[in-house]
C-alpha cells in the first residue's frame, strides 16, 4: 500500500483512503483506542458498585454480631463473670470497628466513582490528588481483607491504571492511606480504659449494676 504524505494530500484524499484526517489525527485516534482498552470507566463503576453492595451486606452482618456480643456481655454481667465479660466486650469493640470500616470503605468507593471522569482524563500513571487517599485506602483494605474479592479485583484495575510502583508504595509504606481506615483495620486489642467505659455503657443500657473488681 502506498504511503500517504500528509503534506501532499488533502482531507478528501485521506477520507478516500479510509482515514478521517491526516496522520496526526489517526495517531490520536489510535492513542485514544489504546487508552480505552487500558481503562474502562464502566468496568470500574460496576466493580465499585459491587464493592459497595458487599459493604452494605457486611455492615448488616456486623450489626447483628455487634448486637449479639452486647447482649451476651450483659448476660455475663448479670452472672458476675467478669473475665468473660471482658472477652465479649473486646469482640464487641472489634465488630464495631469492622462496622465503621465498611462505612468508610463505601465512602471511598463513592468518591472514586464521582472522580471517574477525572481518572479517565489522566493519561499518565499519576493518581490524581483528588482521589489519591480513596484509592490508596481501598488498596490497603484489599491487602488487609484478602476475602474481599471485589477489592482484590479493584486492586488489579488500580495497578493497571496507576502502575505497580504506586500499588507497592501504598501496601509497603501506607503512602496516602487514610489514618482512620488504618486504625479501624488494625485489629488491636482495645485498651482497658476503653473496654471499661464500654462495659459501663452496656450496663447502663441493660440496667445492670456493674463495676469491675480489678484493672486488666
UniProtKB/TrEMBL annotation:
Gene Ontology BP terms = protein transport
InterPro entries tied to this protein = Ist1, IST1-like
Source taxon at top rank: Eukaryota
Q: Which Pfam families match?
A: Ist1 (PF03398)
The family classification in the record reads: Belongs to the IST1 family.
Q: What is this protein called?
A: Uncharacterized protein
Q: What is the native source organism of this protein?
A: Adiantum capillus-veneris (Maidenhair fern)
